[in-house]
Design goal:
By secondary structure, the protein is an alpha+beta fold. The protein has one domain: Jelly Rolls. It has nine helices and 14 strands. Helix 2 packs across helix 9.
Length: 311
């Protein structure tokens, strides 16, 4: 479940999600007069949602005592419950994302069209061997992944979501053997979208599992993501006793896959293509607002977050 997308503007077809509306939200008619609307109730609904988020900074312990996240003042962290609300109610994803949380740069709210975020997950299926890291043909792997993505489209459409095409590597995979960290980025195109989507993935290998950090951004934000990558990566560390070097082969579980399967999407083979290749969207799904730009501008003024805050 580690593909993500974020468009710059609303070119995508309206999502018809089978999810109850949590807020009494006005869905605007597609005409020019309504597009210029700044209905106070819409601004207030966004403000209410924003105020309800528990935005955390400092040291945050995840998954028991497994990982500590050091969140600086320039970012804020949303726990799994709040992250689910953003992913489903604001960005239009299916429920049940099961993430540990999300990181946002402090200058962005979830409603900003130019925002980006990092979802955080942990897979506890065992210690991942990195012995195959130098033997992988990433060109062949990409071709297989592209076909798998195409094969997932009928199930996506049946579930009410648009098609997706894996265009290629935005950055080819590379493995830092000393840090036990894996990096790669994919470029995707979603049906109806002019702007392509960036899926920037980072995997940190631990004693008995893998910490996943996935950047939700547009392809045009690759430079911004690269500039922020090391800062974000430095925030998360396995606590003593859970690092890769703490692995004890006599008692610890070993994963049934290696580095290559992490990149290719090992869940696809286990749980079915649609589940394994599920895409996290940033389409403002249930919050379908043709006047979103104007409303967000007003919201930011209410929160004391002016245009100068935005990059």
């Amino acid at each position: 479940m580690n593909l993500t997308t974020k468009p710059g503007v609303f070119g995508w077809q309206r999502l018809l999600l089978v999810v109850p509306l949590v807020f009494a939200w006005n869905v605007f008619a597609a005409d020019e007069a309504v597009a210029e609307s700044e209905d106070p109730s819409d601004v207030e609904a966004m403000r209410t949602f924003w105020d309800s988020l528990n935005r955390q900074k400092g040291d945050v312990v995840l998954s028991g005592d497994l990982v500590t996240l050091h969140v600086p003042e320039e970012y804020y962290f949303l726990d799994g419950s709040d992250a689910e609300r953003v992913l489903v109610e604001v960005w239009g994803n299916p429920p049940g994302q099961n993430v540990l949380g999300m990181l946002f740069p402090e200058v962005y709210t979830p409603f900003d069209t130019n925002s980006w975020a990092v979802t955080i997950e942990y897979d506890d299926e065992g210690h991942v061997s990195d012995e195959d890291a130098t033997d992988i043909d990433y060109t062949d792997m990409l071709e297989t992944m592209q076909q798998d993505t195409l094969d997932s489209n009928p199930a996506r459409e049946e579930a009410g979501y648009g098609q997706v095409e894996l265009l290629g590597w935005a950055e080819p995979p590379r493995y830092d053997v000393a840090a036990k960290k894996l990096y790669w980025a994919k470029e995707l195109r979603f049906s109806g979208e002019e702007e392509t989507t960036l899926n920037y993935e980072i995997r940190s290998l631990g004693r008995e599992g893998v910490l996943s950090m996935t950047f939700v951004a547009s392809s045009g934000q690759l430079a911004e993501i690269n500039a922020s990558r090391e800062t974000v990566l430095a925030m998360a560390e396995f606590n003593p006793g859970h690092t890769y070097s703490d692995f004890d082969p006599s008692i610890d579980k070993v994963a049934a896959y290696g580095i290559g399967a992490l990149i290719a999407g090992k869940v696809a083979a286990k749980a079915g293509l649609f589940v394994g290749l599920l895409v996290l969207l940033k389409k403002f799904g249930i919050f379908i607002l043709l006047a979103l730009g104007a409303i967000v501008g007003k919201l930011r003024k209410m929160m004391g977050r002016g245009e100068a805050d935005q990059k």
